[in-house]
């Protein structure tokens, strides 16, 4: 039995219409799904409606997740609030293209775990960083050292080691162009 079987919804059940499903997503949920989020505490409510040929799931999630900061890689807690809709139809073979998920009628169920995870992940900002000055100081120090070393490396690769006036690196081609301009 998989850890994510609890999120499996029987589409052929007569009890599905108008039902409400609730889950508290914790570290074990996020650990079971391969993705960016590995820890969190989210309360998810799913309201189910069956309109005959179409199943409509209103999925609301609220809570916090812990993800790595893009800048310093230290843990960062993000507040999550989502309200999303998932449309599911029964068909001959599985399809997840477009606005509607098609589930084989022979199976008759949909596992909402991956969809809930994706809705949570999509609600996060594109760039996930601590507020200015809140990043891990030791990591920022290491990063600045490597940026300076890399910057000097690029300067050495792009420019000749000659200096113009003692302060600026100059490529011989620019010096030749400057001489043409002065003449």
What does this structure look like?
The protein has 183 residues and is α+β, with helices and mostly antiparallel strands. The chain has two domains: 5-122, no CATH class; 137-182, no CATH class. 27% of the residues lie in helices and 35% in strands. It contains four helices and nine strands, in the order E-E-H-E-E-E-E-E-H-H-E-E-H. It has a five-stranded mixed beta sheet with strand order 2-3-4-5-6. A two-stranded antiparallel ribbon has the order 1-7. Strand 3 (39-50) and strand 4 form a beta hairpin. The chain is elongated. The termini are far apart. Residues 156-164 have low confidence and may be disordered.
What order do the helices and strands come in, and which of them pair?
Blueprint lengths: L7 E3 L9 E6 L1 H6 L6 E12 L4 E14 L6 E17 L8 E5 L4 E3 L1 H10 L14 H22 L4 E2 L3 E2 L2 H11 L1
Parallel strand pairs: 5-6
Antiparallel strand pairs: 1-7, 2-3, 3-4, 4-5, 8-9
Structural category is alpha+beta
Task: Calculate the mean pLDDT score and round it.
Answer: 85
**Whole-number total of structural domains:** 2
Instruction: Note the beta-strand portion.
Output: 25-35%
State the helical fraction: 25-40%
Low-confidence stretches are 156-164
Total helical elements: 4
Distance between the ends: 83 Å
Output the helix-strand order: EEHEEEEEHHEEH
């Amino acid at each position: 039995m998989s850890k994510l079987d609890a999120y499996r919804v029987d589409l052929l059940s007569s009890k599905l219409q108008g039902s409400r499903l609730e889950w508290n997503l914790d570290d074990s949920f996020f650990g079971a799904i391969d993705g960016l989020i590995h820890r969190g505490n989210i309360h998810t409510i799913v309201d189910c409606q069956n309109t005959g040929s179409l199943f409509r799931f209103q999925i609301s999630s609220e809570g916090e997740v812990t993800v790595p900061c893009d800048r310093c890689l230290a843990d960062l807690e993000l507040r999550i609030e989502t309200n999303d809709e998932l449309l599911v139809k029964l068909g001959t073979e599985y399809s997840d293209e477009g606005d509607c998920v098609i589930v084989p009628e022979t199976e008759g169920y949909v596992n909402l775990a991956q969809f809930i995870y994706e809705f949570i992940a999509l609600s996060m900002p594109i760039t996930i960083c601590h507020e200015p000055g809140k990043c891990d100081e030791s990591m920022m120090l290491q990063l600045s050292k490597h940026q300076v070393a890399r910057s000097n490396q690029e300067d050495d690769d792009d420019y000749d080691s000659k200096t113009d006036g003692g302060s600026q690196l100059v490529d011989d081609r620019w010096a030749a162009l400057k001489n043409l301009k002065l003449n």
